[in-house]
Amino acid sequence: MSPNTTEDITVELKNDLSELQRLTKVVTEYCESSGLSPQILFALNLSLEEVVANVMSYGYEDEHEHLIIIRINRKDGGLEIEVEDDGKAFNPLEQEPPDIDAPIEERPIGGLGIHLVRHYMDALEYRRDNDRNVLSMKKSID
Amino acid sequence: MNIEQTKIGETRVISPQGSLDAQTEKEFQESVIGNIDGGEKSILLDFSKVSYASSAGLRAILIIAKKQKESGGKLGICGLHDSVADIFTVSGFDTIVDVYSDVSAGLQGLG
């Protein structure tokens, strides 16, 4: 395999926060074997944790086990990352941006996750597909 | 997560280690809130051993900062790794918590 080609990866996680550790491990190994920079690794780990933790914490109204599917593909000089879940319909991109200049008393608890994802990723797109949420993220790796 | 604590002069120095994320935020938050409830008026969070933090970590820090402000105490944070300093800036946290380079600068700033 040449340094510029990488096997695409798919990770399936149960809806339990303890699974995040396994996700971080897989993503770290993927980035290291692909020769991606520590900055890309951080952007990827952070964005995936934000999106996946959100689904795990708020996406399900029952107590059953669900699978969240994460795909990472190398494409057109960048990375394409998809997070797919069968939770309730939720488009995180509809969330209002936080006021990051507000004084401490006026800062709401929470709501910064998607703000960080927007900052560290280059493009975000949401679709509802067959009763599933799919969030796709793009990150250029130049 | 491993969290070390010491008292230097009047300041309680709290040093979490590892990742401050969705899994560890509660433990970290409870440990610091315990100190605030116990009457510590000067708290320095030493983040020199925190290699990674996400919005879950920021949420914990915001809860701590609000609580310490209500109690009339002081709060500082020091030793931020580059990626943690970056999410602080992106989220506007550098304006709500005093950021210091290291423990000695923090002790001086709070003291």
Concise summary:
The complex is a heterodimer of chains A (142) and B (111). Helices cover 30% and strands 27% of the residues of chain A. Chain A has helices spanning 20-33, 38-58, 113-120, and strands at residues 9-14, 67-75, 78-85, 123-129, 132-140.
Describe the overall structure.
- The complex is a heterodimer of chains A (142) and B (111).
- Chain A is of the alpha+beta class.
- Helices cover 30% and strands 27% of the residues of chain A.
- Chain A contains 3 helices and 5 strands; from the N terminus they run βααββαββ.
- Chain A has helices at 20-33, 38-58, 113-120; strands spanning 9-14, 67-75, 78-85, 123-129, 132-140.
- In chain A, helix 1 (20-33) packs antiparallel against helix 2 and helix 2 packs antiparallel against helix 3.
- The longest helix of chain A has 21 residues, at 38-58.
- In chain A, 30% of the residues are buried.
- The mean pLDDT of chain A is 93.
- With 111 residues, chain B is an alpha/beta fold.
- Chain B has a single domain (2-110), classed as STAS domain (Transcription Regulator spoIIAA, 2-Layer Sandwich), CATH 3.30.750.
- Chain B contains 4 helices and 6 strands; from the N terminus they run ββαββαβαβα.
- In chain B, strands 1, 2, 3, 4, 5 and 6 form a 6-stranded mixed β-sheet that branches.
- In chain B, strand 2, helix 1 (25-37) and strand 3 (42-46) form a beta-alpha-beta unit.
- The longest helix of chain B has 16 residues, at 55-70.
- In chain B, 46% of the residues are buried.
- The mean pLDDT of chain B is 97.
- Chains A and B meet through helix 1, helix 2 and helix 3 of A and helix 2 and helix 3 of B.
Jot down its keywords.
heterodimer, A: 142 residues, alpha+beta, 5-stranded antiparallel β-sheet, 3 helices, 5 strands, B: 111 residues, alpha/beta, Transcription Regulator spoIIAA, 6-stranded mixed β-sheet, 4 helices, 41% helix, globular
